[in-house]
Target: Podospora anserina S mat+ genomic DNA chromosome 1, supercontig 4
Amino acid sequence: MALFQHPARITRRILASQIMMTTSCQASTRHIHTSAAQTAASELLKKVKGQKFVRKQLLDGNQLQKLSLTLGRRSEFCTGEPPDGTYLPYGHHLVYFTPSQFESELGADGSDTTFNSPAPFTRRMWAGGEMLWNPQVQLRIGDRVEETTEILDAKAKKSRDGSEMVLVDVEKIFASPRGVALTDRRSWIFRQPLPAPPTGSIAPVITIPTTKSHIQDDTDLKAGYTMRNLVWSPVALFQFSALTFNAHMIHFNESWTRQVEGHPNVVVHGPLNLINLMNYWRDVHSRDGAIKAKSIAYRALSPLYAEEEYTIGTEAVEEGNGETIRYRLVVKRGEVVCMRGEVVGVRPK
Model:
């Protein structure tokens, strides 16, 4: 027997159906309108999605020693080249597997373009990422290591000011002869280049550095943990650029940095910030290596500059019920938060 349906209910269903069709058409129309950032992200994925790029390198002690000299860590590897078998400290792999491009292949700002987003989104910044260490397999000096790089994703984003940008997620896996030791996932943001001054109009900036790099530890009375104060000189930043074969001019060319990029001084490298963050954790929380780092998740929030003092501190330590401990770390310039990181440590069994 057929059920009676009230005309009002039928009308509501028809209206609902029409609204759904209209909404679907509007969504389809919005989807058809593709932004420049969406196009660039799509082109990058079509080009490299699913591909794996493999490089091999010997982890030599000379590179590790030069990093320790740059960092000013007098008690660590500074008196001579560390012997084969020396464990590579957390984050120190960032000075190996450096860019391998001819000068003619670099971007206009000197940056590596190997995994760049297509034009016009070519101005790269380190946004954040995570690292996962295998406690049973550590990288050592003398290891022949294989690095496998893959682009995981690329998507269009908008910055706080509404401008378009492309976010690219990259994964690097480092395998030693004993197995996979580290998975390093990085997020890079690509923005459109700033308007360049006319050729030859960039006046040279000549300043005499008045500050030497230094690191000093104090007690953070509020948090109850050691707080580290750091200052990097332009000389130390140039050394780090040379060590990592990084020609990005924002790190050493003061004229370009001030007049083209609009920064007040040369910029501290993202990888250098991350190495310092992990060195702080090792010195303050690892208890002479008794607690191993399992992972770090971090996010860069604001640039740091040469000759400006900033701090690395601990916001909280969360003791878990199992083997893990979480350490919430923060990098600040005055009251400005420049980077946040959460390290997961593993207790000894």
In short: The CA atoms of residues 236 and 242 lie 10 Å apart.
